[in-house]
């Protein structure tokens, strides 16, 4: 056995091998050490033919899922070696084989999965300079990205040609496992960074996974098509390789036919609004920035779905807003229709409520891991379909009607389960109690034999007693002889010919007859046969459902859609949202808009609604000033969220809205607001500003929150200023922008730069205090009220008083005056010559180090040999250097 173990282990070197021995899965050697440590289970030993006993630990077979889940969560891969023949029948060593490899991206156990989230496996293939895609891009390299959820059968593929787009896709799907080719692993991408940021395991697979021919072949064979153009994959060279690799990896780990993966969907990233990684985080679309939880996110507000499928689909809607007007309007119409037919909507919700996760159920059915109780859950779900289909059929909008048509009531499958499977079956498949009476003749007979066997024996006993006249005739049973008639010696003469003698005792004799023998066979074998027959019948039912996977998946998708639109409609009604008009003129006009999340976190309608007007002309860029805590960030995010909600097809929190469709939304929050990410450096802030300036278009919406805050006032102000000039210049960018700043000097730009308008969030002064009004109004704030805010926050009175004194002396009138001058000069300049493009600008900068490197104190510090100095030496040197410095200061004063 140990030898076989070693051979098996050699085939799965990167996996922990769970080796089935009787009622346990055992691990040996290093695997045992790892597992005992990770799962805190006892380490023992086993003789293995070597001098030392092999370290060993084990988990009971019935708890497999729980242990698997914990190991996979920690990023391990586990290979499961099962006994593949019945130990009772085996001659010699029981045959064992690896039946499945479980990895984070391919785990299917229910408890390991969040049902409201897809669990994605992603394949990334990087190819350099080998092909160019349709648009002629990709000379520097193309990434093929294939993403699959093995539990639902979703499978998608795309191609991108930059790191950034790749990260956006990773971020959009947040896969739990990535497999990639060596070229990607070695391409200089920060693999460890990726691993940490997305909590994903990444492995480079052997090159045989990425052979072009084998990839094409596996896809053709799996999807049973003659050519890949039938799948719409013609234009995806690198994408095909990534999809083929994922397919092969799934085959190798699952060792099943994967019948439930029925389609592959190619998509282009240009079909959806581009939302980059930091924007997703900043807007808190599906998880909050700090706690990484759902409460407090847009998803949390919009999610009133009833089914797991709906919940997952809504999440993808939020992560991929649309950019084509007709598609958006179709969704809006669906929501509107449901709003207007509120009774029908409530009815649909009632019917949706009991529906289980059909997608994952059909996954388990195809995998043959679904148990009888799963089938009952399936049946109970199917029961709802005709009702939903019927109600939906009454709607006239294209989308809802389409969903009704897509929906197959699947009543044949309902009927099959209803006839075959008992209402309250066990979760086990090999202990009987699954199949209904009347479904199968033989099963009925066996079941009857089991329960009615006693009656039959009693009846036979009475009949033979009557026939033979043997008054003491009895049917008895023992283990050795089975059932027999016992005749006491006094009746020996009356025993008929057809009684066959089995045994003679001193005072009695034992017989059997053909009829008794037959009954015995029936009764004794019945139990065992019934259990195994029920298992076979159950498997047949399961397989015939599995054969209908395409119909079921289509219906499940339709149900998910209905669920999402009902959810959007429920939220729209309950929260008083309106249907936004959509335009392609680039105008964003919102009347009394609200922040969907903040308003809901607030009690008693305290949220103050605000208007917005942006266009591609005179109102391109709003500079928003106002003291800290006034509500600048909230307001800007509210606008971004309203635009995003509109484009995903939702109604929006406003009194009226007309939304110009945006191709991208970018948000950037000044460094100090973003401590949670652990990368709150000015450098990161600027990198992202650079990215925005490079990738935004005139149809993008930019939300820049206190840009430049991460550095000194002067640098910060100057950068903010230059960024505004760049963005608002229609020659360079001209994107619609909300720009919050605490540099009220920037309000000077209105009137000098075209398209810039000042807004501020009003506060009221009450003596020494301020009251936040939360209302956005035209004009700039001329004060920052920092001291008042500090006072509100409870900074001691003595500090506040002193701060006021200092402020009076330091009055920033000087800066403001100077800013005015520059604004005037630059407006003159821009009239004559265009602002240079950023890449033409010389990026040279003088650093602190450049200015001090010739200083003698610094030079001496630099030259110290710390390793050879005693502590006393070091202290003395420090003292000397410090004195030198102090003297120098004295001189300069
Ligand atoms: P700023 O960015 O100007 O410092 P924030 O946007 O962070 O201010 O807002 C500060 C707080 O004010 C928020 O936590 C929120 O509770 C409250 N707030 C913001 N906008 C509104 C509003 N329109 N109505 C009511 N409360 C608001
Ligand atoms: Mg703020």
TrEMBL record:
Residues 700-716 form the DNA mismatch repair proteins mutS family domain. CDD domains: ABC_MutS1 (cd03284). It holds the Pfam family MutS_III. This protein is involved in the repair of mismatches in DNA. It is possible that it carries out the mismatch recognition step. This protein has a weak ATPase activity. Gene3D superfamilies: 1.10.1420.10, DNA repair protein MutS, domain I, MutS, connector domain, P-loop containing nucleotide triphosphate hydrolases. It comes from Enterocloster hominis. The keyword Nucleotide-binding applies. This is DNA mismatch repair protein MutS.
